[in-house]
Amino acid sequence: MSPTHQIQDPKHWNRIADSDYLWRSLSLQRWDCSNFTNQHLGTHTWKQFFLHQRRKELRLALAQPHNFICKVTKNIAFETELAYLSGNRLTVDEQEKSIICSVSPKQELCAWDVQEDTMIWSSPVQEFHFSNLVTLPQMHLAITMDRKKTIKVWNCQDRDALAVLPMPQPCYCMEAYLTKDGPFLMVGDAAGDIYTFTLPGLRDVSKVTAFQYGIVLLHCSPDKKWVFACGTYSRTLPQVFLTESLLRPSEGSVPLSTFLPHKLCASACWTPKVKNRITLMSQSSTGKKTEFITFDLTTKKTGGQTVIQAYEIASFQVAAHLKCPIWMGASDGYMIVFTSGPYLLLFSITGFLLQRFEDHQAAINNFWVDPCYVLTTSENSVHVYMWEEGGRHPYLRSCCHLENTWHDHTTDSCISSVMCDNASIVLRVRKVSDSSILVMYSLNT
To answer: What keywords tag this UniProt record (predicted)?
Structure first.
């Protein structure tokens, strides 16, 4: 068949429309699935994977309060974060469970099946309180730090930790991530050092002194190419490191990094869709002035050496009449979402107001954002939003409002943590005079 006839042949276009190349590209644009392989797909195609994921996302986005089953657990500790150990997110398995990790008041690390409202595993009682918790869902691993400065790696199946490592300094932040070279843990400590370890064995890979003060923010970019680090001292400039130079350190050489020329950094987030783009939230010491600054990162060969360059591409100041933002997030690289009092605001990176949501009567007291959803909480309610695919108007869609359905279990409380996957929403509700309760919403499918 000639090329002209082939182009006109409907079967030719059908083959293109079903090609793995096309649907894998679409999947990579929407989700962080660069490490997803044919082994994960099994007998399914990339087209089936993409359509299956979109159906799951829309199912949560279209859900109403009566579509959820709400379960309330016994007390949990309120000092540490919640984290998904595995979830109904990047999978073609309809039976995939939403599993979360939390800490009990007795200082046990616990794994909960959200759909069944069942604790499926717990560690032995720990002598020292947990101070930090992160997970690597792709490998079903939980990593904890305790107040004795000890890191432990758990598979949440065996009784004892897979690896234990005492640290010389308290660690304020940890980040677990999966690369083509394997799984790693990055730790920022009180002395200003960044440690990189293998997982699950905690084998030492590198140590870099980034600041003379403690590190409080440590974030990997979506493609795991860059690492953002920020110290406790607000006058210190934040840095961005090339991840490869931390994973493959050369003896006698300094890891590649660059400073971002803005002080007073209060928060920062990478953009899921533009993977070399990061937005900083800078705030004055009085909290009366907030500015958002967006940078693009790139590497360049100069005189036979590789250097990192950061380009400021946009910035704007928040209007003085708006309440100082506490939380922020980003989506397609051109929009920033943040809270201000009872409002959720969506701005362009240049400062143009795109949307204003007024779904809460009182000030928003917690916030969570990922490439698919935005969650806000106020007093005893939760609101769910969903990003529109491809950055189309209305950009962020208001979906569902869940009022207090756990009021019989606690009084004088507030939501201190919130998160979700495609099939569940999980809250930690902190009581004034006691520990917290775990509130788990699962879709009734």
So the answer is: Repeat, Ubl conjugation pathway, WD repeat
